[in-house]
């Protein structure tokens, strides 16, 4: 059976690029003429916001659909405008899929098992309906946050299997403070925390939450950052969801802004596809992204949002184009990113095409 | 200035209970007569699902509004049905707030800074609008997942301050697998991971993601579970948002199912309000919840969803009532929970009323 990862790889081969275009509409950044059109039709309402977001997205999708295989709408920007915003999200997904694109929803959902099931069924599976079941958002893949552990991930794994969908689990995110929790070095094979608590109860004086532990003279302590523990879980969870082409439909989010960590994670999860944010505006370069690829040139998709969606507002484009050409400029910016990554792939001897 | 925490405590005093009722509509569990009414009006559509969810919620809210101070809709169940579901969520929030209830949205949102800002502005703040700004969901507080660190939390803190709202950050969740990441023992004051990576590069043979480290003969290693590190951050972030009554508007989610951990966390974050899920269906008892309270009897709200919403389907209620009385039964189940917690509070000498 062809998995999400198989579909993804075929689509990437077809376009010969791993670039993914983010669809992040923001009211203060999208072209004024689109806003005027929406307001003239709907007044200064929330429906008008939703309408101009949809028009903007359609422009970007039409402009990039022949160049890239994947788009990534960030649902935060849509749900911020309530039900009308969510309707635009649904219509954007439909429009992109009808254009032959793979849609990765950036949602970072997470909850306990029974609630994670509700998220998963709505976004990548099927929800209970009047007779049988129905699909709602029907995206191809979704990002998932791992703070709650396996029982919050399992419903997504089930839907990946049953509906040929994919997930990307946050492992090492692209933002500056990602290390606060993700990089904390944990002790591997430490005595259980229950034992620790008993020790604490015994003395009762030291801070309740920690404990000096002596590891005998000859002993060594093995430590690893939390993201490695996560990565090992992602690998385990993904081993059951391998496609014909050798990659898993359980992927990982690994920021382009942390190439050293990416190198470690690439070896930890050799069969996981990486969704790589942080390219461009956040500081990650094409060369930085190479650490996310395996030697076969597969294993990563690299995403950019602001630098493409709003390229028309930046140098050098804003000198040569008016805002009416936001879509044409997005296409140019996409081509530039594709070229930069192709060049880096060839330099790294990781180009499969 | 009165903060969210002040409002919360006044409301809890008014009702003399810390019980919070979850609003988790599920199509296969809500009464058949509500479904028939919706289908007769909207056909077997997704709008009919949204309509019977709203009718169900209004029934529960009307039944419990004089008994409790807080309701907690879990947004997963609403957004699973797309824009119509989200509209019902918005209407539920409005209905509950108009009934004088405090609304805690269980959403567990998380993202990098600029995207977290979009989540925060939509849910507890104000979004950009045609002229100025507008409020969308306008809940009183929202749950937030901490995997991305401070820059993903900061926008929520700003909105808490500017709009007298609150957040509850996941620290120790109620589900069985919460310990996988949350309980990992991390080394306190470990050499930075950058140093570790240099060591790794030197030998190159050991698994890339970990390193045996020798801590000299006389040295000791201090370890703490990840949730403690999180708790210390929550404390720090919350110290700037203390209300007149001494508690912070930056709270923590601490499951009733882990009373030992709750005891540690209560001491780590003395001024944080705890949102305590896991009561009832998940296995947490009234006595278990006492660990979440400070000695003044404040500092926690205890939430139950399934056991109240669907009490009409369970013993002994299902023998004595038909499904038409789902709301009356929810009120009875709520009273029983209030009584159980009051009794436990008195036994623990933690009842302020």
Task: Output the keywords.
homodimer; 353 residues; 15 helices; 44% helix
> Given the helix and strand composition of chain A, which structural class is it?
alpha/beta
- The spatial strand order of the largest sheet of chain A comes to 1-2-3-6-7-11-12-13
Number of strands of chain A: 13
Envelope shape of chain A: globular
Radius of gyration of chain A: 22 Å
Low-pLDDT sequence parts of chain A: 190-214
Please bin the fraction of helical residues of chain A.
40-55%
Number of helices of chain A: 15
Q: Report how far the terminal alpha carbons of chain A are from each other.
A: 25 Å
Main interface by residue count: A-B, 102 and 103 residues
Please state the average pLDDT score of chain A.
91
Report on the architecture of this protein:
2 copies of one chain form a homodimer. Chain A has 353 residues and is an alpha/beta fold. Chain A has 15 helices and 13 strands. The first copy, chain A, has an 8-stranded parallel beta barrel, surrounded by 8 helices. The first copy, chain A, has a two-stranded antiparallel sheet with strand order 4-5. In chain A, helix 11 links the parallel strand 11 and strand 12 (272-276). In chain A, helix 3 (46-64) packs parallel to helix 5 (82-98), helix 3 (46-64) packs across helix 15 and helix 6 (113-123) runs parallel beside helix 7 (154-163). The longest helix of chain A has 22 residues, at 326-347. The radius of gyration of chain A is 22 Å and the shape is globular. The two termini of chain A are 25 Å apart. Residues 190-214 of chain A have low confidence and may be disordered.
């Amino acid at each position: 059976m062809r998995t999400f990862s198989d579909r993804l790889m075929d689509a990437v081969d077809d376009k010969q690029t791993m670039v993914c275009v983010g669809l992040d509409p923001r009211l203060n950044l999208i072209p004024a003429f689109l806003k005027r059109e929406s307001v003239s039709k709907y007044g200064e309402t929330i429906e008008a916001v939703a309408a101009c977001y949809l028009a903007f997205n359609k422009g970007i999708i039409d402009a990039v659909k022949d160049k890239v295989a994947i788009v990534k709408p960030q649902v935060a920007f849509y749900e911020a405008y309530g039900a009308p915003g969510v309707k635009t999200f649904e219509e954007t997904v439909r429009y992109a899929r009808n254009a032959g694109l793979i849609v990765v929803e950036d949602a970072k959902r997470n909850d306990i098992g029974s609630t994670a099931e509700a998220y998963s069924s709505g976004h990548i599976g099927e929800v209970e309906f009047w007779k049988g079941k129905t699909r709602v958002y029907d995206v191809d893949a979704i990002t998932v946050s791992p703070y709650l552990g396996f029982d919050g991930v399992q419903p997504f794994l089930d839907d990946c299997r049953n509906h040929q969908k994919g997930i990307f689990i946050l492992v090492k995110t692209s933002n500056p403070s990602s290390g606060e929790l993700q990089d904390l070095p944990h002790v591997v094979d430490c005595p259980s925390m229950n034992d620790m608590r008993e020790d604490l109860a015994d003395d009762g004086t030291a801070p309740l939450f920690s404990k000096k532990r002596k590891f005998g003279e000859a002993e060594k302590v093995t430590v690893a950052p939390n993201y490695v523990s996560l990565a090992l879980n992602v690998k385990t969870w993904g081993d059951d969801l391998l496609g014909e082409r050798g990659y898993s439909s359980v992927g990982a989010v690994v920021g382009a802004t942390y190439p050293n960590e990416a190198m470690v994670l690439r070896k930890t999860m050799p069969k996981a596809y990486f969704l790589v944010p942080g390219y461009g505006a956040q500081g990650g370069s094409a060369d930085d992204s190479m650490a996310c690829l395996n030697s076969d040139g597969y294993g990563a998709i690299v995403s950019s949002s602001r630098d493409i969606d709003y390229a028309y507002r930046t140098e050098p484009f804003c000198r040569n184009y008016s805002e009416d050409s936001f879509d044409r400029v997005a296409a140019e910016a996409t081509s530039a990113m594709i070229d930069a990554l192709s060049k880096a792939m060839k330099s790294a001897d990781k180009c499969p095409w």
